[in-house]
Amino acid sequence: MSGKTHHPPKSNLYWLFGLLPLALAGYFATFSGRIAAGDYPAFNGQWIPALDVSLNLRLDGLGLVMALLILGIGGLILIYASGYMAGDEYIGRFYVILGLFMAAMLGVVLADNLILLFVFWELTSITSYLLIGFKHESVKSQTSALQALVVTGTGGLVLLAGLILLGIIGGSWQISTLLAQGDVFRESGLYTAALTLVLIGAFTKSAQFPFHFWLPNAMAAPTPVSAYLHSATMVKAGVYLLARFHPILGGTEAWFYSLTLVGGFTGLLGAWLAWQQVDLKRIMAYTTVSALGALVFLLGLGAVSEVALKAAVLFLITHSLYKGALFMIAGAIDHETGTRDVTQLAGLARAMPYTLAALLLATISMAGFPPLVGFVAKELIYETTLESQRWVAGLSLTAFLTNVLMVTSAGIILIGPFFKGTAPKDVHEGVWSLWFGPIVLGVLALLAGLFVGSSFFAGQIIQPAAQAIAGEAYAVKLYLIPPSLALWHDGLPSPFALSLLTWLLGVGGYLLHEKLRPSAMRSNTAVSRFGPEVWYFKGLNGLLSIAAWLTGLIQNGHLRVYLTYVFVTLIGLAGFFLLPTIPTEFSLAGISIYEGLLVGMIILAVVMVILAKSRLAAVAAMGVVGYGIALLYVLFNAPDLAMTQFAIETLTVILFVLVLYRLPRFVTLSRPWARTRDAIVAGSVGLLMFLFALTVTAVPTGTPLTDYFADTSYTIAKGRNVVNVILVDFRGLDTMVEITVLAVAAIGVYTLIQAKRK
């Protein structure tokens, strides 16, 4: 290991931004007693009444746990980032984006409306894309950010369909209303479709197999992003979604098999890949994948084990505490040494004592050693699998092997970099903000382990969250009494025996990992050729190839081709929906002779435009069309439109004549079949517009707009000129957009003229 030249970071006060979320976390904590008593704070307001979309927010036990993690860890991350990113020219932008993400994530866990939930869900994807790709000059950051956005964004669209189905089944968009209708959902014919869509959305967000590959690649982000998004918050959004909808989607065979199989395999796969890595952040990323799999695994067991949901809540908190600390420690090590490679790091114990203290607490909790809370969480996981009524041996073996590999990974993170070899002389402890957050999270993990059975932690944090996940229909006796959480149990129960064996094999795995790593990595490389990430890139490249081919086909630089595509699409879509509504009977009796003659003159002028051999003749014929339409406005009592049309036509004809009279005669460029095709398209568009006008005029209107505008233009808009009032007030936004379009076009023309001169 070679230390890098250390430059003290510039002093800044960005750490002060961390005080706001920490204060908010304290505020939310004050609701714990009220929520434990069954009183849930809520806010209900109107958002889009026409679409029945309300601004509903609700705080229950599950939302409280997530909010405390989001705000508490988020505040510590903001403090940490002030030291880690000191001197970065874009540090202000970073804090803004991270703050937006924090707000979006908080919205996800507090939303009590399906549409509102989806809006915040997508905001987390967008802001995480910006954060992962924060180092926008790096190709790796760009690729990783795009990958995360494609995977989670696609899952978000699938989730939207699932949320809509949930709203249809339950007859409401309010989540708290839906959660009381568990039997209605499970007996619905749409249950399987809704469950599948929701699972895909949750699995993509929480990096479950086969969507797990995006999470380790997202480690290209700055370490504060990795510590926050990919350990404590965003990747937990999918787990939160499954927990939130457990009362209505859980309790079925499909739920049990889907979550236990996918979660168990993801947990074991992540743990297997973690110990083979040499980059600290990648080790932690794969252990995060493993932990997320374990959480999904526990939620799947919720219907067959009384302890599963309690274990899920405790492990959710445990993982957030130790993994947030570990990521920040990895960043501090990289910041001070210039590397994250565990094979190059050595002897940091004396050089970085505060970081070591935090790392000891975090890794002990990760490995499940007492008295840290990770020990209690691991014991509950074992208790869950041993008490499950199905596949006891298989479920317990999966949890056991996963935990063994986690112990091995914890040893790799701790022992080699800190207790082997000697650190370079220029390596020393970083600024206070780099070790403050990890120590706080480590101490919290210690206190949570020591006081895990306290009335506050067990009774006001764990129990209400587990009860919210269970729902009223599945609120078994265990959730109605204070949960029996304890650091030590009487005797030597089976979970503790498994813990002893876990530690023994985990330590053995650490002692052998350097010898086993090369062969394991070679086998993984061979298998990865057929893995999901390969198919992701094949799919993405295929999509880009199709897009390039389609762009070359359509975007060929010919305006006539663009118009043809637009008109054909219009004919296909509008015609399909219009044909069934066309009136079968209509009369021409109301048309006067002079109206018919005027229309006939316009039609003849159009034919002349098509057949004219001279540009000037074509321009003159087009002028006849325009003036004919102006006369129609006069006949139908629209003098203002007629005056506008006269002015436009006069100006247009003059401009065309000035420009076109210097050009040569027409030269036939298109072939006969092309002209036939264009004639068919043009005639079809004209026929479509005729049928559309015919259909609209055949439908009786309750209140004509003319009467409405005449009656309200003065009383509402205080204007006597009805036309002006329509343009400025009733259609004010439309008029503003039209002016904006003209302004943009004028700027474009001016730019082209200036470019031509240069």
Secondary structural class: mainly alpha
Number of helices: 33
| Percentage of residues in strands | under 5%
Oligomer: single chain
Largest sheet: spatial strand order: 1-2
Distance between the first and last residues' Cα: 56 Å
- Mean pLDDT, as a whole number? 87
Can you tell me the residue ranges where pLDDT is under 50 for at least 5 consecutive residues? 2-9, 473-483
Cα-atom Rg, whole angstroms?
A: 34 Å
Largest sheet: 2 strands, antiparallel
Q: What share of residues is helical?
A: over 70%
Shape: elongated
Let me know the number of strands: 2
Structure description:
This protein is mostly helical. Helices cover 72% and strands 2% of the residues. The chain contains 33 helices and two strands. A two-stranded antiparallel ribbon has the order 1-2. The protein is elongated.
Features:
mainly alpha, disordered N terminus, elongated
Short description:
The protein is built from 33 helices and two strands. It is mostly helical.
Map the helices and strands.
Layout (H helix, E strand, L loop, with lengths): L18 H11 L2 H5 L5 E7 L4 E6 L2 H24 L6 H20 L3 H19 L6 H32 L4 H4 L3 H5 L4 H15 L8 H4 L5 H7 L4 H11 L1 H4 L3 H22 L5 H21 L7 H30 L10 H4 L1 H15 L5 H15 L4 H28 L12 H19 L4 H16 L6 H4 L13 H35 L3 H23 L4 H20 L14 H19 L3 H21 L3 H22 L11 H27 L6 H8 L9 H9 L1 H26 L1
Antiparallel strand pairs: 1-2
Helix pairs in contact: 1-3, 3-4, 3-11, 3-16, 3-21, 3-22, 4-5, 5-6, 6-9, 9-12, 11-16, 12-15, 14-15, 14-20, 15-16, 15-20, 16-18, 16-19, 16-21, 16-22, 18-20, 18-21, 19-20, 19-21, 19-24, 20-24, 26-30, 27-28, 28-29, 32-33
